[in-house]
Amino acid sequence: MNELYRLDTDVLPNMPTPHDCVIKTILVDKEKQFISFVFEDDISEYDSIAYLRPNAKSLVIKYHFYDAVEDYDLYRFMKPSLWHRHGGYKCLTDYEKGKHDALLKLTKHNLAYNYHCVAYRNMIIELWADTSIVLQLDVDTVEYEWKY
């Protein structure tokens, strides 16, 4: 079952939040301008999904970039240390090396989806993998694909 949410209209959608659900894989489709989060199986065991879709096996969320421009930024919280004197969020998006590298490596650390904030053609997604990770996307549609 698919649900399509548009972020380029006058009224912003109220999308379900798969809070604490683990992202198994991140897919990047450069041709169709999508980033997809594929969640682990048995997603309905989580409290945030159980009341919405009690029979759901898995979920795929596709974020479609608007104007065929692939634009996002990725930030990771760094604690103060010998090498980082000041704590705070550090941008991991490296446009010269290929910005997908940092994003695709995140799933190795048991990446969990915490919450999202929605604005006109924009989303901010808070993720967690041993520290806070913030993903800012310029998107026009978000598609939830529930698998039963």
Q: How would you describe what is shown here?
A:
The chain has 148 residues and is mainly β. The chain is 7% helix and 47% strand. It has 2 helices and 10 strands. It has helices at residues 47-50, 100-105, and strands spanning 2-6, 21-29, 34-39, 58-65, 72-78, 88-91, 112-119, 122-128, 132-137, 139-147. A 10-stranded antiparallel beta sheet has the order 1-10-4-3-2-7-8-9-5-6. It starts with a strand and ends with a strand. The mean pLDDT is 87.
Summarize model confidence as the mean pLDDT: 87
Q: pLDDT below 50 for ≥5 consecutive residues: which ranges?
A: none
Task: Quote the beta fraction.
Answer: over 45%
Helix proportion: under 10%
Short description:
This protein has 148 residues and is mainly β. Helix content is 7%, strand content 47%. The protein contains 2 helices and 10 strands; from the N terminus they run βββαβββαββββ.
Q: Topology, please?
A:
Elements lengths: L1 E5 L14 E9 L4 E6 L7 H4 L7 E8 L6 E7 L9 E4 L8 H6 L6 E8 L2 E7 L3 E6 L1 E9 L1
Summarize this structure as a short list of keywords or feature phrases.
mainly beta, 10 strands
